[in-house]
Design brief:
single chain, elongated, Alpha-lytic protease prodomain-like, 2 domains
Length: 301
């Protein structure tokens, strides 16, 4: 099975589970009207919609044309960047909305007691489903050498969703234990404000990191990953032997496409382009066993 097929199969499984989670989340949100659940359920809906886009991009990005001979892999980091920005917008919007509700309560003493009872069993189910999807994405990405920018983004996004679900469920359980007339009674009215703000502060770093990495790929920045760097350099040195000295190796990643610029110094002057071409073919054969889309370029130091 090709790397693209593995990626697409993972997205299909995630799509089905996100459809279930998103539907449950919206139903429970409209029952309880708790803003933290809005963040949770619509976070899942974003994942669902983006999953459909991810499958389409995964099928299309490897296609080549006269204008794009190396494929359309640029769409993959663009997808990751767009999803991260949508997540940041959602987190910001939700924080503003719960802040307005908390302001109304603390300043004007207006508010309704939160309906927390349906939340706990719902969030337990959601945590289990989210962790299952996240682990599935991570496992499938490991099979292809962590080459998929989109699977990495989805795995981190779904893991963030599981943290949010767990935090909401735990907070709901603790708030239910608070008597209405106690010193902490205000949490029965404003608990979703504190939970939402804490979850946003805790989870906002994930989309920021994904956005940063996506822009690095879009702008053509070097891949800084020691494991992949060491793997590529070990392969190069093995095939170069003593005739060719590896002086540098710059890896540029765009989605699942790797462009490798190899700086070399030839020890034996009798080594011609034919021998280097043969070495290049063997290197690509080995690398493509783990990374399906690799372009290799030799540069004399």
């Amino acid at each position: 099975m090709t790397q693209k097929k593995i990626e697409q199969r993972a997205f299909m499984v995630g799509l089905a589970m996100n459809l279930l989670m998103g539907s449950l989340g919206i139903v429970v949100y409209y029952i309880t009207q708790i803003q933290a659940l809005f963040v949770d359920s619509y976070f899942t809906i974003i994942t669902l919609v983006s999953g459909i886009a991810a499958i389409t991009i995964s099928k299309y990005s490897a296609r080549t044309s006269e204008r794009f001979p190396n494929g359309h892999f640029m769409f993959e980091p663009m997808y990751a960047a767009f999803k991260s920005m949508m997540t940041l917008i959602l987190l910001t919007t939700s924080t503003i909305q719960v802040s307005q509700k908390a302001y109304q309560y603390f300043v004007y003493h207006k508010g309704d007691v939160l309906n927390l009872t349906p939340i706990i069993p719902y969030e337990i189910i959601m945590v289990i489903l989210c962790l299952t999807i996240s682990l599935s994405y991570s496992r499938q990405n490991r099979k292809i050498g962590r080459a998929s920018t989109m699977l990495s983004a989805e795995s981190k996004s779904t893991r963030t969703d599981s943290i949010m679900c767990g935090g909401i469920g735990l907070a709901a359980f603790l708030v239910l234990l608070i008597p209405k007339n106690s010193i902490l009674g205000f949490l029965l009215y404003t608990g979703d404000f504190f939970v939402t703000v804490i979850l946003v502060l805790f989870s906002i770093t994930t989309p920021v990191k994904v956005l940063k990495n996506a822009f690095i790929e879009i702008c053509g920045g070097r891949l800084i990953d020691e494991n992949i760097q060491n793997e590529f350099e070990a392969c190069l040195r093995k095939h170069f032997g003593k005739e060719v000295i590896l002086t540098g190796c710059h890896i540029y990643k765009t989605g699942m496409y790797f462009s490798v610029k190899v700086m070399i110094d030839v020890v034996d002057d009798e080594i011609g382009t034919g021998l280097l071409r043969d070495k290049k073919v063997r290197i690509l054969e080995e690398l493509k066993a783990c990374y399906e889309f690799v372009h290799l370029e030799f540069v004399y130091a």
